[in-house]
Amino acid sequence: MAEGMTNSEIGARLGVTERTVKAYAQELYDRLGVRNRAGAVAEAARHGIL
């Protein structure tokens, strides 16, 4: 995500479908309390994960 890859690119790299990536991303957004990819990346940076 932080590298700016699309869901399709992430899926190809991980060997899963784009739909799977979307589902996991949405779960991540919900857990982090954010609405989108940019928010998730910002939260990760804020917590020192990136």
Summarize the structure.
By secondary structure, the protein is mainly alpha-helical.
3D architecture notes:
There is one protein chain. The protein has helices spanning 7-14, 18-32, 37-46. By secondary structure, the chain is mainly alpha-helical. The protein has one domain (7-46). The chain is globular, with a radius of gyration of 11 Å. The termini are close together.
Give the domain tally: 1
Percent helix? 55-70%
Q: What are the low-pLDDT stretches, counting only 5+ consecutive residues below 50?
A: none
The fraction of residues assigned to DSSP E strands is: under 5%
| Shape category | globular
Sheet of most strands: none
Rg calculated over all Cα atoms: 11 Å
- What integer is the average pLDDT? 96
* H-E order: HHH
Walk me through the topology:
Elements: H1 7-14, H2 18-32, H3 37-46
Helix pairs in contact: 1-2, 2-3
